[in-house]
Amino acid sequence: MKPAAINVAIQGELGSFSHEAAESMLRGCTVVPCARSAEVFDRVERGTVAAAVIPIENSLAGTVAEHADLLVAREVFVQSEFRLRIGHNVIAAPGVKLSALRKVFSHPVALDQCRDFFRHHPKIEPVPFYDTAGSVKHVVAHRLPDAAGIAGRHAARQYSGKILQAGVEDDKRNFTRFFLIRKSTGKSGPSAAPRKGGHGSARGRQRLIPPDANKTSIAFKVKNLPGALFKSLSVFALRDISLSKIESRPMRGRPWEYVFYVDFLRGDDEPARNALRHLGEVAEFVKVLGVYRAA
To answer: Which of 2, 174, 214, 221 is least enclosed by beta carbons within 10 angstroms?
Structure first.
């Protein structure tokens, strides 16, 4: 008997880049589209889906702020990452010609990544839409004669749209980094983060860490003291642990206070555990967001 497909939540419509990433990360999965990012995390926490695939960072647009905030606030754990090449295409209903277009719908980030197309077609108005794949679904379903959407090839296949012009993105080195997240097995939010511990509920989450993990994502808040950030980062430098990313974001509900997000290139080994234990001694809170194999 063939095993049941794993249900995986995404934010957005079928045919989106998240859909494509989900099928690449979990072959044969059943993709569950969600209207809002909060719904994606709700489904993972409630266990109505086995996992979710979320975009966390684009090489041009930067971090997806809402998802970064939700990773800190919710009881989820990053199990793997994937980098998807983002190719944008102008897609319309069958029979529509490029010369007939007067509007092109897409997500604001996608429109911003296709400025050259609109510069070369001044009669076409870029119109912000809630989703890339959703824009194609809209123009095809309504058979709009003078409109198209900008999305990936996956959307054209999903909704039987016609690609009028392929590869309209300005920068061909446009990638989005996706996380595969699962429900965390135990409290691991900021309020429950250990003051002197490393991975928090690491024992309970051990089964979520792949054996070949070599990358860790964390979030932490420093105390409001001179040299606090220097001391926090020194726990990695002292152990020759390389940081591949660091950035700060405002902390929700606490104006002018910030959370630092860090990726470092170690898995669940002794140097990493010692660094996190040390960080727990100098930071106000530490949350391990995930331990996984680098893409």
So the answer is: 2
